[in-house]
Amino acid sequence: MHLWIVAAILGLLATAIALLPNTVAGSNSIDMVNSLKPSTAVAFFVVALSAAIAALWVVKRSLQQAILMLGCGTLIGYSVLIYGADVLGNTRSAKLLAEQLKPQLRADSKLYSYYDYEQTLPFYLERTMTLVNYRGELDFGLSQQPQLWVADSDAFAKAWAYDAHPIAIIDPERYKALREKLPVIIIAQQSNLLAVGKPTATE
To answer: In this structure, are residues 150 and 112 in contact, taking their beta carbons and an 8 Å threshold?
Structure first.
């Protein structure tokens, strides 16, 4: 009976995950949810199936063999879950964004990090970034190099107008508000980050 209960609960979880709306995580995480749903649902389904088989096995064989069956199913489900979780790397690193952005960089391109700081991006781009309205863990360094900090959105608007080829790294939600204030166009993106530049006369 316990095995049937486990199978039923995990089966329901697998079904619920498979049917989970993408928008439940918000617009910034839709790609992540789409990527994780299949592997997570399959993982729970595999364990549920092994629990159901184990429940039948108890009657025909032995409890020890049923537990072994459930253990193997759990191991397979866990392996599927770990394999699927590999996609989370794209939400914790800006490598994909950097690969799109690097060919577009010019010698006079100035990079801004708008209201946040993606720590992996300077490494991949091999460029220093100017922070906009963000200090955080970089407060001491910015006190030594104040030219790498822009105090607020008004100061950023002036810098954006002055620079010939500025590029800003921004959260998709903040981009909606920024495009109403400044001329910006998306030049690179991944699920949780955007890179925006100044549009040319033809754009």
So the answer is: yes
Tokens of 45: 């389904």
C-alpha distances in Å from residue 105, one per residue of 68, 98, 126, 165, 202: 57, 10, 11, 9, 19
As a whole number of angstroms, the distance between CA 169 and CA 116 comes to: 8
Task: List pLDDT tens digits, range 87-124.
Answer: 665 556 678 888 888 888 888 889 999 988 888 888 88
Question: Encoding tokens for residue 172?
Answer: 């998709």
What is the value of pTM for the model shown? 0.59
Rounded distance, CA 136 to CA 133, Å? 10
Going through the chain in order, the beta strands assigned E by DSSP cover 109-114, 130-132, 149-150, 165-170, 185-190, 193-197
Q: How many whole angstroms from its chain centre is CA 153?
A: 25
Q: In this predicted model, what pLDDT tens digit does every residue of 15-46 receive, in sequence order?
A: 877 777 765 555 445 566 666 778 888 888 88
Domain layout of the chain by residue ranges: 2-91, 93-197
169 close to 114: Cβ distance less than 8 angstroms: yes
Query: Rounded to 5 degrees, what are φ and ψ at 202?
Result: -90, -5
